[in-house]
Amino acid sequence: MLTLAADIDVLARFGRALADPIRCRILLALREAPAHPADLADRLGISRTRLSNHLACLRDCGLVVATPVGRRSRYELADRRLAHALDDLRLAVVAVATDRSCPDADEKDCC
Questions:
Q1: DSSP per-residue string spanning 53-74
Q2: Which CATH number covers residue 62?
Q3: What range defines the domain where residue 48 resides?
Q4: What are phi and psi of 70, to 5 degrees?
Q5: Which residues pair with 66 in a beta bridge?
Q6: pLDDT tens for each residue of the chain, 111 residues long
Q7: Contact 41/48 with Cβ under 8 angstroms?
Q8: Phi, psi of 95 (to 5 degrees)
Q9: What whole-number distance in Å separates Cα of residue 3 and Cα of residue 107?
Q10: What is the C-alpha to C-alpha distance for residues 31 and 45, in angstroms, rounded to an integer?
Q11: Structurally, how many domains does the chain consist of?
Q12: In-domain check, residue 104
């Protein structure tokens, strides 16, 4: 059983990861299937350097893991329950606030 402080830390890490649209796109892509960074970068239309920085953040948050496959690494969600959590969170937000949008997605205090 986690303590309140540990629960808060877990939710804060998850929130930090979801605070960036690119990281959200990465998590949603990995929800579908594990992928190599080069393939993810191409799929998401971002540079490999930028993707690498976001993957490092997601690894630090404990949401994704890298598995060596030969000379390359394959990324996947750290726990399959994260896929369900992402779906549940997305559906809950849509159900609660269907008529709302973030007024300025670049604002740090937004949403």
A1: HHHHHHHHTTSEEEEEETTEEE
A2: 1.10.10.10
A3: 11-96
A4: 65, -125
A5: 75
A6: 568 888 899 889 889 899 999 999 999 999 999 999 999 999 999 999 999 999 999 999 999 999 999 999 999 999 999 999 999 988 887 766 666 665 555 544 433
A7: yes
A8: -65, -35
A9: 31
A10: 18
A11: 1
A12: no
Q: What DSSP letter does each residue of the chain carry, written as one string?
A: ---HHHHHHHHHHHHHHHTSHHHHHHHHHHHH--B-HHHHHHHHT--HHHHHHHHHHHHHTTSEEEEEETTEEEEEESSTHHHHHHHHHHHHHHHH-TT---S-TT-TT--
- Write the burial class of residue 2 (CB in 10 Å: 0-12 exposed, 13-18 middle, 19+ buried): exposed
Number of other residues whose CB lies within 10 A of the CB of residue 50: 12
Please name which of 78, 26, 77, 28 lies closest in space to residue 52, comparing C-alpha atoms. 26
What b/e readout covers 17-49, taking b as 16+ CB neighbours within 10 angstroms? bbeeeebebbbebbbeebbebeebbeebebeee
Among 25, 60, 57, 59, CA closest to 42:
25
